[in-house]
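Deviations from the work plan: none for this task. Representative record:
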Amino acid sequence: MTRLETRGVPLGPIPARAGIGLRFVHHDALLEERPAVGWIEAHTENYFHEGAAPRALERARANYPLSMHGVGLGLGSADGVDRAHLGRVRRAIDRFEPALVSEHACWGHAGGEFFNDLLPLPYTEEAVALLASHVREAQDFLGVQLLIENVSAYVTFQHSHLSEWEFLAAVVAASGCGLLLDINNIYVSAQNLGLDAEGFIAGVPAESVREIHLAGHARNGAILIDDHGSAVCEEVWQLYTRAIARLGPKPTLIEWDNDIPALATLVAEAARADRVLEELHGLAA
Amino acid sequence: MASLRELQQSFAAALRDPSAACPVVPAANLSIYRGNVRHAFRSALEQSFPVIRRRVGDDYFGQLAHHYRGQFPSRSGDLHFVGANFADFLADHLRGGDYAWLADLARIEWSREEALISPELPTVGAEVLAGFSPEQLADLVFTLQPSLHLRSSSYPVFSIWLANQAADAPPVDQSCGHECGLIRIRAESLEVIRLEPRLFSYLSALAGGAALGEAMDVAGLDETALLSSLGFVFSEELVIAVSLTT
């Protein structure tokens, strides 16, 4: 942990409270308003380079525990881990010293083309072995435990024969990673594909869950689209409450990436998550 | 049973071509992924080239993004790099047509994108020259701010870029011809400045590593311009180091 002490800034662990996803438009407001949120999370790829954005994040992290959340590694890609991208993640970790580092249970590139999307994996032993080996490769290189997040899905592979939570539990067992449980993604996938959201919450290994995401989605006919463009819906709040009752208090992030509202709106959503945590478990300091 | 690699290859093919088969259900929902991928690419391109988007409109920009992605698909999980070849693509795609100047406008916008993610290093002032004798001046080499980009075009692309910072900009008279200038970050702000051609040549030579005397020769500046040309690089806070050529 010497790396965390080099700047003399009080950092993590990320408390079991609500935090907010930090987006560029809120960099100034966060510093001026200093909202009482427990922590912040930044998209790792947004801070790979020099310039105003990383300077703003350095100022923000002096006031809040920081988690860094990647969207670009595509660790489930059969073609392998992009070592150049992994190197940039490591430089970001060295620079910003996050208390948690996360990525997704997905793939993102094939045949040299990157799709810049969180693409679904088949839930098979082969995919468990491949994702787990890439997670281990990344963890060894980065020197941190990764949390792996369940993604929203719009299709299932005919080859899948594990449930999603069995798949994730097997990846945890084979790689030593933790889980980032996205409650909205569980809900969206369950609605779209006729899956069992309650079974997911009941089946996931509680001790491996180290963070929770909450976000809004859009409806397009019968399909729910995970667009992070609105408030968390009531069904997802109810699922979250049952998840917290079963899993115990967990750091909970409010994500909002499109039609981003004023910072105060995110802070209000975070306060609601804090109330759930407090009512069920008492609020962590 | 298909391997994971084969499944991802068939999924990738279905992302490029709606008629390609992929063993997922419901297969119709692959269109959501196709839309997401298209949107991510186009949004990244739009972020890097807002003036091009403004000049050509949404529909045509979407067509350009589609053709560009066909030739230059994303090669990284970092969307910053998506636009790296867009100016070259436009030069090829629009060659000889009425919109060939868009390629040079794109080079300014890509320089802006590169400048925005460059570090700003501490500058040195003109007092650093006191450490050298007058005879050494011609042999001085200047290291300039890494965010500095120098661009020239046979079209008035700097005027076009500057005019199009607001919506509904009037068209710029294309007949006003050649322009050159610089793009850089100073005190956390973007600067896009037109330069007089000789000053541009002089700066380009310095940026290319030429010593002061050589840069002045290249730019056709005589000794009477020594102070003003030196004054420019220092007053604009462009210099981060000065050394003697070896």
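The CA atoms of residues 38 and 238 of chain A lie 22 Å apart.
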